[in-house]
Amino acid sequence: MAGVGWRPLTVRAHRDLSAYEALYEGVPAHLRPSLRRWFLTAVPSYRRALALQRLLRWDLRLDGLADLHRHLDEADGDAWLDAVDCALHLIREEVRCACEGTPGDDLVQLVEEATVVVGSLSDMLDDAGSAWTVDVSGVWGLERRATPLQRAGSDAPDLHDHEARAVRPVGADRRTLPRDGP
Question: Which stretches are tagged as biased composition: Basic and acidic residues (predicted)?
Fold first, then answer.
């Protein structure tokens, strides 16, 4: 993860981490280019694109990968999250099927590639301050990121309680959020 421990100079100088540490809902503008590039790797074939379209039940003409990418370029954050979540599921299913029938080196290479693709997404979401993270326990997919408060104990508020968590709506600029104190 590129941003571990690092904070912008302006944040460090003002010692106000609360605004910077707030999580983004949906898919913020600063995450979209990286997510699009990740998606090209995660859905590299027309076959996988068709599977994604079927599972998401998207009503669109899909004559090639370019059609899927064009659709996502115009999509809202929810559609992006669904597409990423589904792509993770498809990668898992491909690895699972390969484990049942692919011998030796091919399987090792497939698992290594899947690990890199999934790991890069996890790092990307962390770096961008996304409210979402990758869950690879069981069915691979996205899950809401637990805040430090939720990890602290069972008395922590529910993640769906909007009053209890600092989550920034998509489109909110970190620099324009009100600061606590001077």
Answer: 157-182
CA distances from 53 to 88, 101, 137 (A): 14, 26, 24
Q: Name the residue type at position 64.
A: G
Above 60 in pLDDT, residue 43?
Answer: yes
Residue 104 covered by a domain = yes
Q: How many CB atoms lie within 10 A of CB 51?
A: 18
Q: How far apart are CA 165 and CA 145, in angstroms?
A: 11
Instruction: Identify whether the C-beta of residue 144 lies closer than 8 Å to the C-beta of residue 132.
Output: yes
Give domain status of residue 3, yes or no: no
CA distance 66 to 29: 21
Give me the phi and psi of 141, to 5 degrees please: 175, -170
| Arithmetic mean of pLDDT, 33-60 | 93
> pLDDT per residue over 58-89, tens digit each?
998 989 899 999 999 999 999 999 999 999 99
pTM: 0.74
Domain range holding 41? 9-176
Please check whether residue 148 is in contact with residue 22, taking contact to mean a CB–CB distance below 8 angstroms: no
Phi then psi for residue 43, to 5 deg, are: -125, 75
